[in-house]
Amino acid sequence: MTYAIGLTGGIGSGKTTIANLFATHGITIIDTDAIAHAITAPGGAAMPAIRREFGDTFVAPDGSLDRARMREAVFGDNLAKTRLEAITHPLIRTESERAAAEAEGPYLIFVVPLLVESGTWRQRVQRVLVVDCAEETQIARVMSRNHFTREQVQAIMVRQATRAQRLSAADDVIDNDVQHAPLAPQVDRLHAAYLKLAAQAQGN
Ligand code: ATP
After folding, report:
1. What is the pLDDT of residues 75-106, one digit of tens each?
2. Residue 204 scores a pLDDT above 70
3. Contact between 28 and 103 (Cβ < 8 Å)
4. What DSSP state is assigned to residue 144?
5. Which of 46, 70, 151, 161 lies at a CB distance of 3.0 to 4.6 Å from 39, suitable for a disulfide?
6. pLDDT of amino acid 203
7. What is the per-residue pLDDT across 23-72, written as a single tens digit (0 to 9) for each?
8. E strands within 124-200?
């Protein structure tokens, strides 16, 4: 099995930005958020079960998930959230493994926003790479990217692992407060380290 890195970080920390830099080294990126989106798009693999479990009112006219409605339904309702995840998580996992089996190259990267919160993903990867930045940086980025209020961003952040919890689960950390350290050299250094680790793992 290909050596696997799990890339994680809080909302707006820079996971996609950093995954794109690894991709410039030819590394396969498997983005679980993109998979989650694809399986709830029109004709997506999760849609029949969502329709069955939640009803037609959660399906938009084009056959995709009515995201706004579902967000409202699961917000603060753990049972509904668990029911949704019971449908989506196994499909995301299956699709991720299918993509991993096809991946070429010395190692691959799974981008998993809630990796630290998920025991199964932590077990699946050989190393956990955390994208770290100040909470204020996350808030400013998401406010500007999504036109959210500070309160909306904070409401999402309190539902995620804390910065300290993420850092304590990390094997490697990228500092994405750009005033501290530029990104490309950090990615280059980790890429070199991962090439070595993947080669060692191959030899065992
Ligand atoms: P999400 O969890 O919300 O999907 P993410 O962790 O994938 O976010 P990105 O989408 O990479 O984060 O970055 C969030 C926003 O911050 C984007 O608009 C991105 O362009 C910007 N951003 C990320 N890193 C930097 C940086 N080093 N310098 C400037 N802008 C950045």
Report:
1. 879 899 999 999 999 999 999 999 999 999 99
2. no
3. yes
4. H
5. 46
6. 83
7. 999 999 999 999 999 999 999 999 999 999 999 999 999 999 999 999 99
8. 127-132, 172-175
Cα–Cα distance, 55 to 48 (Å, whole number) = 10
**Ligand 1, atom 22: closest residue by C-alpha:** 14
Q: Round to whole Å and give the CA distance between 186 and 124.
A: 24
The residue with tokens 């919890």 is 165
Contact (CB, 8 A) for 128 and 121: no
Question: What mean pLDDT, rounded, does the chain reach?
Answer: 95
Which atom of ligand 1 is nearest the CA belonging to 113? 2
Which residues 6+ apart lie within 8 Å of 160 measured at CB?
Answer: 10, 11, 113, 114, 117
Q: What is the pTM of this model?
A: 0.94
For residue 111, give the nearest of 26, 195, 18 by alpha carbon.
Answer: 18
Amino acid residing at 131: V
- From 141, 142, 157, give the residue whose CB has the most ligand 1 atoms within 8 Å, as the site to mutate: 141
Is residue 181 within 8 Å of 131, Cβ to Cβ?
A: no
d(CA 83, CA 126): 29
Q: What are the backbone dihedrals phi and psi of residue 4, each rounded to the nearest 5 degrees, phi first?
A: -125, 130
When computed from its CA atoms, the radius of gyration of the chain, rounded to whole angstroms, is: 18
Beta bridge partners, 173, equal: 130
Query: Is 48 within 8 Å of 28 (Cβ atoms)?
Result: no
At 124, list the tokens.
Answer: 């699946």
